[in-house]
Amino acid sequence: MYLSKLFIPLLKENPSEAKIKSHQLMLKTGMIKQSSTGIYSWLPIGFKIMKKIEKIVREEQNKIGAQELLMPTIQSAEIWKESGRYDDYGEEMLRIKDRQGKDLLYGPTNEELITEIFRSSVKSYKSLPQILYHIQWKFRDELRPRFGVMRCKEFFMKDAYSFDLDDDKAKESYNKMFFAYLNTFKRLGLTAIPMSADTGPIGGDLSHEFIILADTGESKIYADKRIFDIDINEHQNNQPSINNLRRKYDNFYAVTDDKFKKEDFTSKVNKNNQLTTKGIEVGHIFYFGDKYSKPLKCSVDLKDGKKVYVKMGSYGIGVSRLVGAVIEAKFNNNIMKWPESISPFDVVIIPSLQKKDDLNFEKSKKIYDFLKNSNIDVLFDDTEDHLSAKFKKFDLIGIPYQIIIGSKSGENQFEFKEINGKTDILTIEEIKNKLNKKINSN
Ligand code: ATP
Ligand code: MG
Known about the structure:
Elements: H1 21-28, E1 32-36, E2 39-42, H2 44-63, E3 67-68, E4 74-76, H3 77-83, H4 85-88, E5 94-97, E6 103-106, H5 111-121, E7 130-139, E8 154-164, H6 167-187, E9 192-196, E10 206-213, E11 219-224, H7 242-250, E12 254-256, H8 262-268, E13 274-289, E14 299-301, E15 307-309, E16 311-318, H9 319-330, E17 347-351, H10 358-373, E18 378-380, H11 387-397, E19 401-405, E20 414-418, E21 423-426, H12 428-440
Parallel strand pairs: 3-7, 17-18, 17-19
Antiparallel strand pairs: 1-2, 4-6, 5-6, 7-8, 8-16, 9-10, 10-13, 11-12, 11-13, 13-16, 14-15, 19-20, 20-21
The chain binds adenosine-5'-triphosphate (ATP) and magnesium ion.
């Protein structure tokens, strides 16, 4: 893609309405545009990054055998009346009427709808376990939408639902999801800490929030620092088993505000290991047994003919919030560096083109064509901005690698720079191999 053709409405000034860096950067680099309070359009660069995050989320769900489906954004109020949540959910729920006067709503979450799908399709214990998920827009009329995509009214979420026969099996599904989440966040270049959490309006007795540390986060957290040292790769060969490894996390105190008790914190955590800080919730998982299956009469027949209510859990990841969360975690000293797995382009070619420098243009174009033909997603800055202005711009856009065609580049050797990192002088073949290696490792 040529930069001159890219739809990227950059702002010259810092947007004054934005209080945190992710919101500022997303507006400034034209990733999003507010359409009304708490509702955004996703412009090409922002959308591309969100789609890459979605892809990683999807791959990690598929890896544990979860199956993707797609439920609508608009739901009938009937099933919410059956579960009792139509009244409980309050003003966060956007309620709508159709022309026949039928009560509808824009889904804030999908426990009811998925239970309805399940109860009408599955009758026998033989069909269990199941994990179903979708990635869909949600609407919550948040009291105070703020911080850009972090807390908005309309947001993109992956929500999964597990169905099992008994508590033990259901907790196994919960634990599978627990590690799928840790792997997902790791692939996004984030360290997310699972914290035991309150279950809130979803209900139930077992719940973890996945939090990444950031000063601008809305969640206050209290943790034993040693929880950061647990190696999630340990469970790969089932050594120790997934359930035992999950218990390792339980050994370390890590809670959010709602569950915090000062006495517990000071008695359970040695002073040197106490960490009190703030974070961003990027995922939340719940086990709630038959809280929804019972009122919605979602049962299956056992071998002996008895009926049991299925045991359910639900699991959410804030896909759109993650775009902002990655920025909060990675934006430093006015430089953004997207993790390679989700960067808007793999590499950018930055020629010095001030005086309509045909030679540099031709050289750049050759490199561009070569990399493009090697399946590398490359951006070519064909504008005539001053080189220093270009660098400033790319510090914000955050493409992880730059090929600079200027005084230091020779006939066949070019400056290859890692944003906020080191510079090498490499041939085009070496650049291609380096980039391909990085792309394939994501
Ligand atoms: P919060 O406490 O931040 O309101 P929640 O507990 O209400 O979150 P869940 O219902 O568990 O959130 O939703 C799953 C995930 O969806 C959250 O972990 C978060 O990443 C994301 N999310 C929730 N509400 C919003 C919102 N208003 N804007 C953007 N993302 C959101
Ligand atoms: Mg909420």
